[in-house]
Design goal:
binds zinc ion, Immunoglobulin-like, alpha+beta, 8-stranded mixed beta sheet, binds tryptophan
């Protein structure tokens, strides 16, 4: 790939259309690590072959990052100074041999000084690596890009006491002792892979071991490595792993392909986890759990992330990406697969609602602001900044739409074709889509636009019923704001799953001659389309976008009564919930808008009481599962309401309206909530299963409303003290911290929690996060104090996200203080973190993605904070890329 200097930007911008294969292939790599905390030697032997049609003598230019070259040789002969040029970020061999040759490179790196958590670093004394996307170039010079596939043989040498465990990708070939208390291990991975999937680990770790017998009879050893004494906390992760193995065999026919599968949990990690071939490395928060330290949602997250990384073995590793523009090829598909896994292991409608809510809050917000980009971007300055909700979550929605359009059978046929045809290759989105086009015989050209056009389409629905002839017409119109990249948006293929609901709540039978109606899916492909139905002897209520069948904003002309009717009777649970949610959000925005000037909501409109009554009815409906009933009682977050409002956002007004509604719901439901809570209490021993978790979620939210209705911190305090597990304990502490922040009982509980869990980092993260989430402008002071807490550290991403991330996303009133003080605070924090960990700094910065939607005064304060960052000295490429895009600097994307 070539890099061109951009006229406006300092850093080079990479362009999709510039893709070229490398002039040389590197089919095999041998690496030898001499692990040392401050001076690790890496010897790389690369087998290199000129590709066909490349002129002999073409220079070999490899990537590096902050590397120190110690020695370089070709076929065993050291290179003279005139034969190469080495810089920290680049190694050029001017005239390589014409035929295949071996390039030997020795570099020296300092793992302890590496606080970017990319490349080789130490976490809690354990040597570990993170190479995606461009971390391998911090270890040795290489073509550090996903289309260069090699087999790896890795020899690790280390002190035997400090690092009794030595791991790398693939299968273990050899181990042995060496003089001076050192030992070694050799690992070989027979599957050609790109450098971003390389990993190695060395440390004093303990393993939880098990095995899985694959469908072909092969025995696979499973090991989960944790810090000593914590293996019991990996039992749920192991259980999830085995279920993920079995599920991928049953649903996608995918079997594992090595004798061993290792997972290592570390406490310093930039993201959730990493799918390195045969050696996944995890943020320990997605591995470790027991009832006393983890909540039900932690368990669900562990199950999901364990499955996600395992599923990458096929969707990502066996078939990888040609270049980073194709990131959604592996991430969107793998998120789709983990969502389906969670749906099968848990509750499908509940899972769908959780996933849809996450999409509409985070991805829709991203798509509506200055960081909007297509699911397949065409430009990037820093690839780390494209591990986004758009690539992951919207990317998953695109795969889901394919499944919806084709039906399960045809979808699976396309998947099988993809897995067999492209096994061992580095592919593009076109390769993927072509498999579905071929196996189904359909045309995907309009569908491809989903990968190219940024923004959330709006689908507007109108309808008319003619009683005289029993006919019903449905008009759907799609629109998409002109994209940042310029140009009018083109209509795309949008599958709208639907039903026509009769007055008895059942779907009505009807007729249509329209070919765009395929079973229960309306195929919207034009800007405007009219669908005709006949044979309806009474007026139906259309239920559209069932199962949230496309990532669009649906605007209907349904009356309030019709929406409440669907909320009560639709056979599609997702739509029942969405109807209620939509009404509620609109009502809160309206109430907030009316109060915008006063910074306080006035009395809420009468419809609020109807919505609250409908929610209570859902809560009481014993035909529904507790997890779903709990969700119906959950109010949309302030951020979700703000995202839906889209412009002139005043977080104080949203907070006030939401708070007022909270009390209406609490008062409306109180007596019935008391009875329900008794009835649904989980009495058996703790099990993390989804049904019990749903019951706990339900009883905990009931307790929340009871405490709010009574304005009684003692109810919350009792929940905290009597809790038998972390889910309940945290629910109690949450209630206290969020609703009774100044009560004595709250101070007491926070102190008790701190004292009990001071040595449990993951639990303390919850303690920091809760305190950062409480409302009020004075939270900033609390945050400042907590940054001085002895357990706070800017070096640990989990801790930073717990305190700073929670403040920014959860405490809207405090973060969006009208005086802008919190914006400035965040700016300082970002500049500070950027010095060590650009990825983390850029992620925090991207929380400012919706600044253009704020009301005028806050908008200008946030802009000033962004400008302050932009003027910072020695900004990383990650941070300068995001800040430039946030400020709308032209020519960036
Ligand atoms: N590929 C990983 C996943 O989604 C995530 C990932 C990308 C990552 N870049 C990273 C993890 C950097 C840690 C650090 O499963
Ligand atoms: Zn992934």
């Amino acid at each position: 790939m070539t890099t061109k200097p951009d006229p406006v930007q300092q850093p080079p911008v990479f362009r999709l259309e510039d893709y070229r294969p490398t002039p040389y292939a590197i089919p095999a790599v041998r690496l030898a690590f001499d692990l040392h905390p401050t001076a690790t030697r890496v010897k790389a032997e690369l087998e290199i072959a000129r590709r066909p049609n490349v002129a002999a003598g073409t220079p070999l230019v490899l990537d590096g990052n902050e590397l120190k070259l110690v020695a370089v040789a070709v076929d065993g002969v050291p290179l003279g100074h005139k034969a190469y040029h080495a810089a920290p970020d680049r190694l050029e061999i001017f005239a390589p041999p014409a035929g295949p040759f071996t390039l030997e490179i020795i570099t020296e790196i300092n793992p302890d000084k590496n606080r970017s958590l990319m490349g080789l670093y130490r976490s809690g004394g354990v040597f570990c690596t993170q190479c995606e996307a461009e971390g391998f170039r911090r270890i040795t010079y290489f073509y550090d890009r996903p289309d260069v596939l090699a087999t790896y043989t890795v020899r690790l040498t280390a002190d035997k006491t400090a690092c009794p465990v030595l791991l790398a990708n693939g299968n273990r070939q050899e181990t042995g002792d060496l003089p001076e208390g050192r030992h070694f291990a050799v690992w070989h991975d027979p599957h050609p892979k790109p450098s971003y999937l390389f990993a190695c680990v060395g440390g004093a770790l303990e393993a939880l071991s098990d095995r899985f017998i694959a469908a072909d009879g092969k025995k696979v050893e499973l090991h989960i490595y944790t810090e000593p004494g914590k293996t019991a906390r990996a039992l749920y992760a192991m259980d999830s792993l085995k279920r993920a193995f079995a599920w991928d065999e049953a649903k996608f026919g995918r079997l594992y392909d090595l004798d061993i599968f290792n997972i290592v949990a570390v406490s310093d990690f930039n993201m959730g986890a990493m799918e390195n071939k045969g050696l996944n490395i995890f943020n320990d928060k997605y591995v470790l759990a027991d009832p006393q330290t983890a909540t039900d949602s932690d368990y669900a997250d562990i199950e999901r992330v364990i499955a996600h990384e395992y599923f990458h073995n096929w969707s990502g590793n066996r078939i990888t990406c040609r270049d980073w523009f194709q990131l959604c090829l592996k991430e969107g598909l793998t998120v789709y697969r983990d969502q389906e896994f969670s749906s099968d292991e848990r509750s499908r409608p509940v899972q769908r609602l959780i996933d849809a809510a996450f999409l509409t809050t985070t991805q829709f917000a991203e798509d509506a602001g200055p960081l909007a980009h297509p699911v397949r971007p065409r430009r990037y300055a820093a690839i780390d900044n494209f591990y986004t909700a758009t690539v992951y979550e919207k990317g998953a929605e695109l795969v889901r739409m394919i499944a919806c359009l084709l039906g399960e059978q045809e979808f699976q046929a396309g998947m099988t074709l993809y897995f067999t045809r492209h096994d061992g290759q580095a592919c593009t989105i076109e390769d993927f889509i072509q498999c579905f086009a071929e196996s189904s015989g359909r045309n995907f050209s309009r569908f491809m636009l989903w990968y190219e056009q940024a923004g959330t389409p709006q689908v507007k629905a109108d309808y008319a019923y003619n009683a005289g002839c029993g006919s019903f017409t449905l008009t759907l119109e799609q629109s998409l704001a002109p994209t940042a990249a310029g140009g009018e948006a083109k209509p795309m293929t949008i599958p709208v799953r639907f039903g026509l609901v009769g007055s008895d709540g059942k779907d009505m039978a009807c007729k249509t001659a329209d070919k765009a109606v395929q079973g229960d899916v309306l195929l919207l492909t034009q800007a405007k389309q009219i669908f005709h139905f006949t044979g309806l002897d009474s007026r139906p209520v259309p239920s559209l976008l069932r199962g949230f069948s496309a990532p669009v904003r649906l605007v209907t002309s349904l009356s309030r009564q019709e929406r409440l009717f669907l909320a009560a009777y639709d056979s599609d649970l997702v739509n029942r919930y969405q109807m209620l949610r939509g009404l509620l959000i609109e009502t809160l925005i309206e109430a907030g808008g009316a109060a915008n000037k006063a910074n306080a909501a006035g009395p809420l409109p009468a419809v609020s009481f109807e919505i609250a009554a409908a929610q209570v009815q859902m809560a009481e409906n014993e035909a529904l599962e507790p997890a779903f009933r709990a969700l119906c009682l959950h109010l949309p977050s302030e951020a979700e309401i703000a995202a839906a409002q889209g412009s002139n956002v005043n977080p104080d007004a949203i907070f006030a309206a939401r708070q007022a509604f909270l009390h209406i719901l609490a008062d409306t439901g109180k007596t019935r909530f008391l009875a329900l809570r008794q009835h649904h209490n989980v009495t058996s021993a703790f099990s993390p299963n989804a049904f019990d978790a749903g019951k706990r979620a339900f009883t905990n939210i009931l307790a929340e409303y009871i405490a709010i209705a009574d304005n009684d911190p003692e109810i919350a305090a009792a929940l905290y003290t009597k809790a038998g597990n972390m889910t309940e304990k945290l629910a109690g502490l949450r209630l206290l911290t969020l609703y009774f922040p100044t009560a004595a009982a709250t101070k007491q509980a926070l102190a008790d929690f701190e004292q009990r869990f001071a040595h449990e980092a993951l639990v303390m993260d919850k303690w920091f996060a809760l305190q950062a989430s409480a409302a009020g402008t004075d939270r900033l002071e609390t945050i400042r104090q907590l940054t001085r807490h002895k357990l706070f550290s800017y070096d640990n991403p989990n801790r930073v996200r717990a305190l700073i991330g929670s403040f920014v996303t959860q405490c809207q009133t405090g973060f969006h203080r009208a005086d802008g003080a919190s914006y400035r605070f965040l700016a300082e924090v970002i500049l500070r973190i950027d010095k060590n960990n650009p990825q983390l700094a850029a992620r925090l910065l991207s929380f400012m993605r919706s600044w253009t939607q704020l009301e005028q005064e806050r908008r200008s304060k946030m802009q000033a904070a962004l400008q302050y960052i932009a003027e910072g000295r020695a900004l990383s490429r990650d941070v300068s890329d995001i800040v430039n895009r946030l400020l709308g600097k032209p020519g960036v994307l």
